[in-house]
Specification:
The complex is a heterodimer. Chain A has 18 helices and no strands. By secondary structure, chain A is mostly helical. The longest helix of chain A is centred in the N-terminal third of the chain and has 37 residues. The relative contact order of chain A is 0.10. The chains are: A mainly alpha, B mainly alpha.
């Protein structure tokens, strides 16, 4: 295949490409594009909450119907926060983790030339794009974009009159169905590829934890997304054809929507964090120059989190009127997830413990992932506990929690991964100084933005309200809201550093060598960037990917395709367990 | 799908299943979850009603449903005879099997459509009751799969003209056969849920 790569026409090489690396980069670009839109929407949300009485800068550019004289009305605010969440979840975090890094890394890290089904892979991307455009374009319909929150609970979402949004909400449902289809196609491909296409010697327990995480994530996507499809289909029928699946008036069950939605969306929470956990595991080991602590425990805890993820959905519904006994069982199962999560956290700490740490931008972002994941994980336990949840449910506490795990967790994981794999993706290095400054500022302003939200939540500040000053008991909190808004605006502005570095380095970055970080996994065996077909010859794998600082080896790393010194290749899953 | 496959290399740790069968099983797990979601909703809605079917709605034509179940099962059997013929290198019998399976599949979908029109004629409107809505949505989702299946079978019956079967064709036929058996199996399950329980 690679021999005719040079004469491939532009459109086949960069647009309708079947090369997993090009598709991965396409997903990356799509997600980063939507991240800009989602981020700008977040800025609008924050402006409104911090300064509800002041006209938004540039607000007059919006049509008068949405923002009369630059002031956001409550209806438009509903659409803005709904679309911020929907875009960030469905069009940024999921496609960037599974779509971008999943596509780019899976064949490279297992030593395959491409995915099992390259055309299906291409189709998956070109199905996702119209889905994303459909969702984003709903802003331009007469009645605006979806405004029910990203959870789209009926009856609010089922009857157009309740929000006043007609086409926008249905387009949102359609977009979720389409993006979900793309997701399932990707999952089928990843699972088949990882099971069947590993290089010789790449036993399951020699796979990097990134691959384990992407594998388990694909299983979650495969099994959870069709249930979302069924419930979204029923919601669409309720909206358009007058059925009563969720309308009590015709015998429907409102709560059933929440059960089915969270049956997907709780596993989806892990779809949005497990891959980042995998990236971070690899990055921490590489830059600590130490084997990952407890490799098998790490792999099994990914499986544990995923398995438990299917039986905890009810913890989103403690206040829904669900049977309280059911709430207690969901509370118990949710708390159990703390066990595998803690295993991972302690193993990350064990990995960096007394390592020769190199504070590259990738490492810094990975360390930020671990620390903010601890905060987000602990605040999760508060809400998992039904008596506490009764108090903080639907307040800014949950907003703080989700941003600690999705921004503090997933997005720092994404920053780490971009820093780490950028040389492999584009063959050039990013500027480390700029990215270090970007990291420091992002970390500071991330915490200044989202930590105070815990306090707002404890004080009873409801989420999803357009004007906090309309409530007397929230008036004393307004300075805190303004503080958050100012920090959020700086947090948003700081991202220009990263975007600029990303773009400029594409053309002006230092040329990357094959293995700039001296890491062990197979993607670093291939040239940077790898050609179509990835490897000159398919590598043979002799041991696990975490053989750092092995006694008797001259360098402090031992790539997976290089046998351990002293004769026969090791047949143990990894030398590190043998040494331990 | 045949041209998409890069078969697992023989020296790799390829699993017990070749790519195309593995990928199909994985995909059908997603299909299973779709119907589990829909049937799950049916169960919830059913137990929320004091009486099921609700009083006054026309009953489902059990005879037609049973006959149609037999049709789709016969179609699966015909297809399996074709696949067995393929393994015995009998291309003519393979083509016969594909054709019979496709025609019976088309008959199944046509009878489903007939059944819907009979029911609508008797006043079982799509949006009227959750009983009707769940029936139409579940049987409709299944019929969409069956439609895809019989068209695919028919296309392969038309394409398979030679006295030999290429590797790519063989893989595609295996994938299609797994899919078609899945459609039949799901229908048997749905028949029990929708008509008998």
């Amino acid at each position: 295949m690679s021999e005719h790569a040079h004469k491939t026409p532009f459109i086949r090489k960069y647009i309708f490409s079947t090369d997993h690396k090009v598709i991965g980069i396409q997903f990356l670009m799509m997600s980063l594009f939507f991240m800009i839109i989602g981020g700008l929407l977040a800025m609008m949300v924050r402006w409104q909450l911090g300064f509800p009485e002041k006209a938004m800068p540039l607000g007059t550019l919006f049509p008068d119907k949405l923002m009369p004289e630059g002031h956001m009305g409550p209806e438009f605010y509903n659409a803005v926060f709904t679309m911020h969440a929907s875009i960030m979840i469905f069009l940024v975090i999921i496609p960037i983790l599974a779509g971008a890094f999943g596509n780019f890394l899976v064949p490279l890290m297992i030593g395959a030339r491409d995915m099992a089904y390259p055309k299906l892979n291409m189709l998956s991307f070109w199905v996702a794009v119209p889905g994303g455009l459909l969702m984003a374009s709903s802003f331009f319909t007469d009645t605006g974009a979806a405004a029910t929150g990203w959870t789209a609970y009926p009856p609010l979402s089922a009857v157009a009159d309740y929000t006043g949004v007609t086409a926008g909400q249905s387009m949102w449902i359609g977009a979720v169905l389409i993006v979900g289809t793309a997701s399932i196609m990707g999952a089928v491909n990843y699972i088949t590829t990882i099971i069947n296409m590993r290089a010789p010697g790449m036993h399951l327990f020699r796979m990097p934890l990134t691959i384990w995480a992407l594998f388990i994530t694909a299983i979650l996507q495969l099994l959870a997304t069709p249930v979302l499809a069924s419930v979204m289909g029923m919601l669409l029928f309720d909206r358009t054809l007058g059925t009563h699946f969720f309308a009590p008036v015709g015998g429907g069950q409102v709560l059933m929507f929440q059960h089915m939605f969270w049956f997907y969306s709780h596993p989806a929470v892990y779809i949005m964090i497990l891959p980042a956990m995998g990236f971070v595991s690899d990055i921490l080991a590489t830059f600590s120059r130490k084997p990952i602590f407890g490799y098998k425990a790490m792999a099994f805890s990914i499986m544990g989190i995923a398995g438990l993820g299917f039986i905890v959905w009810g913890h989103h519904m403690f206040q829904s009127g669900m049977n309280p006994l059911l709430g207690t069982t969901f509370m118990a199962s949710t708390m159990v997830i703390a066990v595998p999560s803690a295993i991972k956290t302690f193993n990350w700490l064990g990995t960096i413990w007394r390592g020769s740490i190199r504070f590259t931008p990738a490492m810094l972002n990975a360390l930020a992932f671990v620390s903010t994941f601890i905060v987000g994980g602990l605040s999760g336990i508060f809400m998992a506990s039904t008596p506490v949840d009764m108090f903080i449910h639907d307040t800014y506490f949950i907003v703080a929690h989700i941003h600690y795990v999705l921004f503090g967790g997933s997005l720092f994981g994404v920053f780490a991964a971009i820093n780490y794999w950028y040389p492999k993706m584009f063959g050039r290095m990013m500027n480390e100084a700029v990215n270090t400054v970007h990291f420091i500022l992002t970390f500071i302003f991330f915490n200044l933005t989202f930590f105070p939200m815990h306090m707002l939540g404890m004080a009873g500040h409801m989420r999803r309200i357009a004007d906090p000053t309309a409530y007397d008991f929230l008036k004393p909190l307004q300075p805190l809201n303004e503080f958050i808004t100012i920090n959020a605006l700086i947090l948003g502005a700081v991202q220009v550093l990263f975007a600029g570095n990303f773009i400029i380095s594409l053309f002006a970055g230092k040329k990357a060598e094959r293995n700039p970080w001296h890491a062990n996994s197979l993607e670093w065996v291939a040239p940077s960037p790898p050609p179509h077909g990835n490897f000159e010859t398919i590598p043979t794998v002799y041991h696990g990917p975490y053989e750092f600082s092995v006694p008797g080896v001259v360098e402090d790393y031992l790539p997976q395709d290089r046998p351990a010194p002293g004769g026969a290749p090791s047949h143990t899953p990894s030398l590190s367990t043998a040494r331990a | 799908m045949e041209s998409m496959a890069i078969p697992g290399r023989p020296d790799g740790p390829a699993g017990a299943l070749p790519n195309h069968r593995l990928a199909t099983f994985v995909f059908l797990m997603a299909g299973t979850m779709l119907f589990i979601g829909l049937v799950g909703a049916l169960i919830v809605l059913r137990y929320a009603m004091p009486q099921w079917p609700p009083p006054g709605v026309p009953s489902l034509p059990l005879g037609l449903g049973t006959f149609n179940t037999a049709v789709i099962l016969l179609s699966s059997i015909a297809l399996q005879r074709g696949v067995r013929a393929m393994r015995l290198l009998d291309a003519a019998a393979l083509r016969r099997g594909l054709t019979f399976a496709s025609v019976l599949g088309a008959l199944f979908v046509a009878l489903q459509a007939l059944q819907w029109s009979i029911l609508i004629g008797r006043g079982l409107s799509f949006a009227g009751t959750t009983y009707a809505s769940t029936f139409y949505v579940i049987s409709g989702a299944h019929a969409a799969h069956a439609l895809t299946g019989f068209l695919w079978l028919g296309a392969m019956a038309l394409r398979q003209r030679q006295a030999w079967v290429t590797d790519a064709m063989q893989r595609q036929i295996e994938v299609c056969a797994l899919f078609w058996h899945f459609v039949g199996l799901v229908w048997v399950f749905l028949y029990v849920v929708l008509y008998l329980l």
